[in-house]
Amino acid sequence: MLEEYRKHVAERAAEGIVPKPLDATQMAALVELLKNPPAGEEEFLLDLLTHRVPPGVDEAAYVKAGFLAAVAKGETTSPLIAPEKAIELLGTMQGGYNIHPLIDALDDAKLAPGAAKALSHTLLMFDNFYDVEEKAKAGNDYAKQVMQSWADANGS
Predict the structure, then answer these.
(1) Cys-Cys with 76: which of 45, 70, 72, 146 at CB 3.0–4.6 Å?
(2) How many domains does the chain have?
(3) Burial, 142: exposed, middle or buried (Cβ in 10 Å; 0-12, 13-18, 19+)?
């Protein structure tokens, strides 16, 4: 997968255009590489994960969000991504498949600060707003911080 993508990048660069983002199949292969990274490829793998997956509701974003959510919950591991880093990366996805894992992380004392920060900067919440509101009403201090941030328009 890595060599194919490097070839693609080189071909596109020769044409003066940026490489295409990863698709769902490539993202699934990347997930496996992130779980057991080949020596010397760590930085490239993280760059692909961070910068070459479309945000939002693309199929590759679904795979990315699922992987990062699993890392955050401790259901899978990567020597390159701690749970807190997984939350940070979920926070860069702008909305879509990343929202539920971030909301769930509000209940984890270790992950809640990062999740609150990420959600405070996420505007594409749709009906998930009510999930955060419910947590805030139930006394979740991090959910309250998110709600206040939105009310103060601090996230934009």
Answers:
(1) 70
(2) 1
(3) buried
* Distance from C-alpha of 155 to C-alpha of 39, rounded to nearest angstrom: 38
The pLDDT tens digits for 133-151 are 999 999 999 999 988 988 8
Sequence-distant (6+) residues with CB within 8 A of 64 are: 27, 49, 53, 89, 93, 97
* Domain-located, residue 130: yes
- Give the per-residue pLDDT at 125: 74
Separation of alpha carbons 91 and 99, rounded Å: 8
The whole-angstrom separation of Cα 88 and Cα 94 is: 12
How large is the average pLDDT for residues 101-112? Answer: 97
Q: What is the CATH number of the domain that holds 18?
A: 1.25.40.310
Does 156 reside within a domain?
Answer: no
Mean pLDDT of 88-93: 95
SS3 content of the chain, % helix, strand, coil (to 5): 60, 5, 35
